[in-house]
UniProtKB/TrEMBL annotation:
This is Uncharacterized protein. It comes from the Bacteria.
Amino acid sequence: MKVEVEERREDRFHSRCASLSRGLMPLVAASILSFMPVSCEELDNDIGKHSQGDGDSLAAVSLSRVASLLAELPIEEEQLAEVYDAVTASSENGYDEEYMMSDLFRLPGAGVGDDRLPAGTKSPVSYQRPMRDLIIGYLESASATKAGGGISSGYGSVLSPEEFVSALENSDIQIYWPFSENWDGQTAPVITFDPMDGSETNVGYEVVLAENGDRLIREVAVNEKMAEERPVWVVNMNDDSGHTSLELLRRQDPDWGSGGGEIIVGMNSPASLPALPSRSGDSAGATGSPLRTLVLKEFTMLRNYDSWFAGASEFFVKMGSVENFTASTEAEIKLYNPSVTDFMIVVKRKNVGVPQPFNAVLVSEWTDQLASCAFMIVEDDGGTRTSWKCTALVRIESKSYGFELEIPINSRDDIVWRGQLSSRYILANDNVTGHFGDVDLKFQIVEYPGV
């Protein structure tokens, strides 16, 4: 059985393939640079002047080359099931519907985050002929039939089969399968790639059978509407696997099986957080002062931030505050350091306007002396690490004092909203949905009985 490529115009769809290095730390302790009495704090919102420039590194093979390679593989139902298993696992772990090449070669069928699940959570699945075997076999065969034994990288260079596999294995390249939940278990996908220029339509490769049984690869125009109606694989770049999703944090809680999305997570182990009164059966009226915790209950994305080829939107919610501030004198301020909480939530394109459970602790010990917190929401777009210089305010009697913080941000991130959240606003809008740029948020002050 032979494979023919009809009207290959790959050069016209050459993509700028960027390996985006993220690396945001999940919890950053900010040092106190200074403290001073203030009547009103002015936030430094000029993110541009803190930028160090963009630093991207190219993958060794192009997205268009990987897409055409996948289209030429003799993919059957077993390989389709493998990709489906992987993207489903990624989605269940709180990531997009994605199958990274690193996982494809390391552990076929594994989703993003599977390697961080508690032991025994998932049973391994074996495949008689996984996708990696098809890829390696194709590369070895193609190399043997070409002069010089090299394979095009898509960038004008030539690689050996071993170099090509290594390039895939060590890249952030992945298969993104939008609307994978609609798959009928049989239909083969059209395979395309992210042009990385904001386009909404690109070339795709569809396998058709000729009357004589030969497999032909036909070029078709692919858009999001097609992906809604039939299977489409998009070869694109992963940009969320380096971060721990909220769902993974929840699954680390011993009560995950029964608690699900209602489990409230913090930056430390969820199991270390105090139990909610509604879950533990505690009642109000215990002796001592109550513990109050600021929780972000819901997150609603009001628009998609990227081209559909890039997949879901990855948001980071960051809050700078001073935990359990109870100083009674100016001298005692030196005993406190501000901190930054930083959570990631992945919102799939189909969930625009649909509230997503967030249930994460932003400030674990909120006191009456905490006047305001620095708050920022960004949609991750990479670039180089920089920071937003901002202030959290505390009160001692009638005076306010500012703790300076630096909240990490990437130079190309889309800033959805940033500014100060006052204690007055939080208390007045407890459990009420508020509008913050292109997202809606619902905060809640959870009060635990004193001890």
